[in-house]
Design goal:
The structure holds two protein chains of two kinds. Chain A contains twelve helices and no strands. By secondary structure, chain A is mainly α. Chain A folds into two domains: about 1-40, no CATH class; about 65-275, MetI-like fold. The longest helix of chain A has about 35 residues, at about 240-275. Chain B is an all-alpha fold. Helix content of chain B is about 75%, strand content about 5%. Chain B has twelve helices and two strands; from the N terminus they run αββααααααααααα. Chain B has helices spanning about 5-35, 55-60, 65-95, 100-115, 115-130, 135-140, 155-180, 185-195, 200-230, 230-235, 250-260, 265-290, and strands at about 40-45, 50. The longest helix of chain B is centred in the N-terminal third of the chain and has 35 residues, at about 5-35. Chains A and B meet through α1, α4, α5, α6 and α7 of A and α1, α3, α4, α5 and α6 of B.
């Protein structure tokens, strides 16, 4: 009897906390669906009395949102492809080859992963101005490798370290070359790890703000983060339902990715990423 | 070394070469360059500069502005860290129990960590809105306050708000790490404790906590480093105000470089900030090395 009671209490406490944590995001969605007039009623209603998709329509047709969205998609995809390709080769090297300086290199990669962006941003800004890349998406792809490459390398390294060495040795004995073994044995084995690394890298690039703020100052190549913030700053009257609609829209790709990653996260993959 | 081993070593170097080249260009060079720039006085728009030696550092160390910002950074880091760890561990323990719709609860809790800081800030600024924000309405309705509160424009509210939003955004990281560790604690340890007559509480202090010690040390070090260098969240919530009271060191670097156009000074602030962080970075490196090499 007492144990049933404590189960009920446990459920109530946990779900109350979960509701509090989730509330801001629920409120975001609800606000984006309310007509403007409902935002300013006192007291505010919880559910919209009338559901409208007007703000989403305005967002897509009357604002540069769609361009920002495309920019972000291009930016995050290119960063991910670059970083995962380079990172997979590098991680394979760090895990399976012996040469002098290997451990030092691995330590340095971890160190770079901890560096604050604000330290690197001044020289990177000067560099982009000098080579004429400022205000381009390419400058952001380059800048994003500063945090995403060490991150991807570190994750891929722990994934590849988990692949039994026998598999590769067997392929080598059968006459495969090292690179042949890499493509035939390591890559397929590491595929789940590579996919989740790619998804995590995509999220990092999609959400980045500071480099985008400093390096890009034209609507032509602004990504979503700075673009949407710009909509807030330059607005004459802040239209909160429009901004909430923008927030929902820019979170949708993340929700989709999150659904893929969820099983990894709750099954202890998170610890692998943390443990390093 | 046999010829084959030598060839393998060369192949290994060739595979890591792209990584090394990229990291040299975008990290090593800029890092050294930042240190170099900190000895100059540079006007951002024209990039005209002259060498000033240690002058920038002398100015920084003798200005109340720097020490105030350092203190602000410590308050922010400590405040949000304590909330993240306390709430993160508590939530992980709850989510490790058999509750209804457990995986849904886990997803909902993890979500703030994955959304963009821009989205988090927009949502919270709307919640905090002094006239139409839901937060003031709820608190007035509950009788906690009788006047709408200015959450971001006055002190100490602004600092409390920033710390709270930081905790909300980043505590899921603690949940992920701790939850993953909790799932690997062998059940027989709890069995043994139960046979020895340990109650719920002493099972927690004698079995769970010691098992969590390693992961907590790492999580705390990482969170200190990341919170210390956090820019987006504070910049977008308060912009450093009111009256510089939430202006942490990363915000000063940005302000000096792109607001006041003092690029050399900004570099010096950045280097000073790195030096403070270095303690925690080295601690983290030492800790992870200890554990990865048996």
């Amino acid at each position: 009897m007492t144990s049933r009671l404590s189960t009920v209490i446990l459920n109530i406490v946990t779900w109350t906390l979960v509701a509090v944590i989730a509330f801001p995001l629920v409120w975001m969605v609800l606000t984006s669906l309310k007509p403007q007039s409902e935002l300013f009623t006192i007291p505010p209603g919880f559910l919209p009395r009338e559901v409208t998709f007007e703000h989403y329509r305005i967002l897509l047709t009357d604002t540069p949102f769609l361009r920002y969205f495309v920019n972000s998609a291009i930016l995050a995809t290119s960063t991910t492809l670059l970083v995962v390709t380079v990172g997979a080769l590098g991680a394979y090297s760090l895990v399976r080859f012996r040469y002098r300086g290997r451990e030092t290199l691995a330590g340095l990669v971890l160190f770079t992963y901890l560096l604050p962006s604000v330290v690197l941003i001044i020289p990177l800004y000067l560099m982009m101005v000098k080579i004429g890349l400022s205000n381009t998406l390419a400058s952001l792809v380059i800048a994003y490798t500063t945090f995403s490459l060490p991150y991807a390398l570190w994750l891929l390294r722990s994934f590849m370290a988990g692949i039994p060495e026998d598999l590769e040795s067997a392929a080598l004995v059968d006459g495969a070359s090292r690179m042949g073994a890499f493509f035939d044995v390591i890559l397929p084995q590491a595929l789940p790890g590579i996919i989740s690394t790619a998804l995590f890298t995509f999220i990092l690039a999609w959400n980045e703000y500071l480099y985008a703020l400093v390096l890009v100052n034209s609507d032509q190549s602004r990504p979503l983060t700075t673009g949407v913030m710009n909509m807030l700053i330059t607005a004459f009257n802040i239209d909160w339902s429009l901004l909430m609609a923008a927030s929902v829209m820019m979170s949708i790709p993340l929700i989709i990715i999150f659904a893929f990653l969820q099983s990894y996260l709750t099954r202890g993959f998170g610890a692998g990423g943390v443990k390093g | 070394m046999t010829p084959l081993e030598r060839r393998y070593a060369l192949l290994g170097l060739a595979l890591i070469a792209p990584t090394v080249l990229i990291l040299t260009a975008v990290i090593v060079y800029p890092l050294l360059s930042a240190i170099y720039l900190s000895f100059f006085s540079i006007y951002t728009p024209t990039l005209a500069g002259k060498a000033v030696g240690l002058e920038n550092y002398r100015t920084i160390l003798s200005s109340a502005y720097f020490w105030h910002a350092l203190w602000t950074t410590f308050v922010w880091t400590a405040g949000t860290l304590v909330l993240q760890i306390g709430f993160g561990v508590g939530m992980a323990l709850l989510l490790n129990q058999n509750i209804l719709f457990r995986s849904l609860a886990r997803s909902l809790v993890l979500f703030p960590y994955f959304i963009s800081t821009v989205v988090a800030v927009l949502v919270w600024r709307w919640l905090f809105n002094d006239l139409y924000g839901i937060l003031n309405h709820l608190l007035i309705a509950a009788g906690v306050i009788d006047m709408p509160v200015d959450w971001l424009g006055s002190m100490p509210n602004a600092m409390v708000s920033v710390i709270t939003v930081g905790a909300w955004k980043f505590f899921p990281f603690v949940v992920i790490a701790v939850l993953a560790r909790l799932q690997t604690i062998p059940e027989h340890l709890y069995e043994a404790a139960r046979i020895d007559g340990a109650g719920t509480f002493s099972r927690f202090t004698d079995v769970t906590l010691p098992q969590l010690r390693d992961v907590l040390s790492i999580v705390i070090l990482l969170r200190i480093i990341w919170d210390f260098k956090e820019f987006d969240l504070i910049y977008l919530l308060t912009g450093g105000g009111p009256m510089d009271n939430t202006r942490t060191l990363p915000l000063i670097v940005y302000q000096q470089a792109f607001g006041l156009n003092q690029m050399g000074m900004a570099a010096a602030y950045a280097v000073a900030m790195m030096v403070v962080m270095l303690v925690f970075m080295l601690a983290y490196l030492a800790y992870s090395r200890d554990r990865s090499t048996p």
